[in-house]
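### Sample
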Amino acid sequence: MRPLLVPFFISHQGCPHRCVFCNQVRVAGAAGSLPTAAQLLRRIEEYRLGAPARQLEVAFYGGSFTAMPRRDQEGLLLPLQPLLRAGVLQSVRLSTRPDAVDPETARFLKQHGVATVELGVQSLHAEVLELSGRGHGADEVERSVATLKEAGIEVGIQLMPGLPGDTPQRALDSLHRALDLAPAFLRIYPTLVIDGTELARRYRDGSYRPLSLGEAVALCKEMLAAAGQAGIPVIRFGLQPTSELDSPGVVLAGPYHPAFGQLVESELCFDRMCALLTGVPPGSVVTFGAPAGRLSDLVGQRRVNLQRLAARYGVTATVREDAALPPGVISLQWDGPSRHARLFESHPRH
Ligand code: SF4
């Protein structure tokens, strides 16, 4: 069982400047102050009491952890050391900028129980990085991934398709460069226009146009298929809905949807269902089989996939869960021989 996350949002701490799309305070609703040791320990104890059987993992999100002064990093990590030694805490994860990682920093993190670093990469295209005000290039990404891995730290990569200057092809190129770095996982957040950002100003003056929801789903479907082919999991698509994010006037534009990830998975399923229906005559009654947990992805929100199949192929389609199917495989039963398809071909790189 995965450990239970004990999250701490350290909004913009360590950030050398504001990237054009970013407003952590509006997104997460957390002020930019660091928790004290007492606050850290109190929150961990609350989680421990609430789920005594679960392993715990502390996560520091929303800032540039390794760009903070070292004494602030120590202020957050040192109080956790007795809990790590006692096994109350399993590990620590944090997010940071690619240009704020060097070998000495990576060793410091490793020595203090940090098991996973999530790098806010966003893009690996020079012009996109420039227009987004990141303040670093793609080389720093490649260097930081290598440095963290050499120190024995697991690396996750965050990407943001739809940034200024981005195109679907550039986003896919960035993805492939990221996959070449063999991260342990990806998070993919299509760019939203958040109030109080430089991007909001550009959106209002017409110099920036975000992806539509349909464009973002179509692009992320391609990204999911490519990541799956490389054997690298995408552990999250789209920002986690929060009361702050759902408040009026926070997301000004862009492909925000509270179940964005499911839209992407359903779209990929739809493609595979279409492929399975090749040569099946109109008027057929067909049943798709889904492995455990995949049924709703096949059906789609408000049964949209079944409706689209009826309109496109003239078939009456139903779905059923088939526990015998391996994960990632779907089946088709009809008058002819049964057919199977992988949601993606898997060729793990590591
Ligand atoms: S994207 Fe990351 S580095 Fe840029 S302002 Fe936001 S938290 Fe800071």
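Confidence is low (pLDDT under 50) at residues 346-350. This sample (Radical SAM protein) is used throughout the tutorial notebook.
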